[in-house]
Amino acid sequence: MTQRKPTRRPRARSTTARLASLALTLAAAMSLHSCAELPARRELLAAGTQLQTLLTSLGTAVRQQAGQASGPGAVSGSARVPTPSGSVRTASTDGAFTACPQFFAGGQPPVVKPQPSQRALCYDAFAILHSGQSKTAVYVAQKLNRAAIEDADEKRTDKFFTDARLPAAERAQLEDYRGSGYDRGHLAPAGQMPTPAAMAQSFSLANMVPQAPQHNQGIWRVSVENATKKYAARATGDVYVITGPVYVPTIAQSKGIGPGQVRVPTYLFKLVYDEAQHRAWAHWQLNDNATRGSRPISYVELVRRTGIEFLPGVRLAD
User: Fold this and answer.
1) Disulfide: which of 47, 264, 282, 293 matches 302 by Cβ 3.0-4.6 Å?
2) Bridge partner list, 125
3) What is the dihedral of CA 191, 194, 195, 200, to 10 degrees?
């Protein structure tokens, strides 16, 4: 009997897994240290880029051998990286959020007009659709409930970092905020994070927008973030929350800060959807130090103002 030659696929997968582990190690090192603490950061960044490039190539080769190669020019051909418990997970770059559908009502992300630089990112306690145009999120999605709020008692870390999964040209840097006069305003609040890992991840600059300090530390925190947290703690089921910036008249015409010109939003919104009650409303506030409290707006009005269908397939109570 003629013996079959051993297949090379397991070896390719093993190599990919080893490279993935190295890439995650480099990304974690760059995320947890500042430039002053890590003199060799540029060398690590270069090594990480090379590893990611090789990893993608190997992943494509494996898919081709398996007959599952993506078509020419497909954006969603990112290699899937093994994820240790408690680490940041990588989603596809096509906005599908296949790695974290739990943060969306019915598992369905908002319907957004696609842009070339939009990238989907999954974290332990929230998901982000990121825009390379504004260098901020298009929106950040969370799922809250009584148990999650009871667990949200972690010590605040205050260690801001750039997410190395985003291309350098599309992401905010720490220096963009220095001396800008704006806070690094959380979209998914640190005070709603249920684990130490989620708390650390909430300080990704992908989860920040340039926010007027008095607004961030005052009415937004008290009347929007804290009010939403208290509501979720009383709710009988899951509460889906989507927070994001609005740029008027356009992203390109909005003020930019820092060398990277991170765009300053004109407004901020926070949509709250109570699944058990089939009710939804949104906070809508001007990103300004003089902003005072305002009444929430309806879901229909939020869709009209943003052009985004945040709850596709959801029927709301009259």
Assistant:
1) 282
2) none
3) -30
Distance, C-alpha 64 to centroid of its chain: 30
Q: Which run of H or of E encompasses 274? A: strand 267-274
Which of these three, 61, 81, 101, is where a domain ends?
Answer: 81
* Same domain for 277 and 215: yes
Domain hosting 215: range is 83-306
Cβ contacts of residue 191 below 8 Å, gap of 6+?
152, 156, 225, 226, 229
Domain total for the chain?
2
Looking at the structure, tell me whether residues 55 and 24 fall in a common domain. Answer: yes
Do 20 and 89 contact (CB within 8 A), yes or no?
Answer: no
Specify whether 61 is located in the same domain as 110: no
**Residue 314 in domain:** no
- Strand extents, DSSP E, 104-234: 118-122, 127-131, 136-144, 183-186, 208-211
- pLDDT per residue of the chain (318 residues) written in tens, 0 to 9: 444 444 444 444 444 444 444 444 444 444 444 344 434 444 444 444 444 444 444 443 333 333 333 332 222 223 232 232 344 444 334 447 999 999 999 999 999 998 889 999 999 999 999 999 999 999 999 999 999 999 998 989 999 999 999 999 999 999 999 999 999 999 999 999 999 999 999 999 999 999 999 999 999 999 999 999 999 999 999 999 999 999 999 999 999 999 999 999 999 999 999 999 999 999 999 999 999 988 999 999 999 999 999 999 999 987
Same-domain check for residues 133 and 244: yes
> Which of 127, 76, 74 lies closest to 99, judged by CA?
127
- Residues with a catalytic annotation lie at 186
Residue 64 and residue 92 in one domain: no
Which amino acid makes up residue 203?
A: F
List the beta strands (DSSP E) in 116-266. 118-122, 127-131, 136-144, 183-186, 208-211, 239-246, 256-257, 262-263
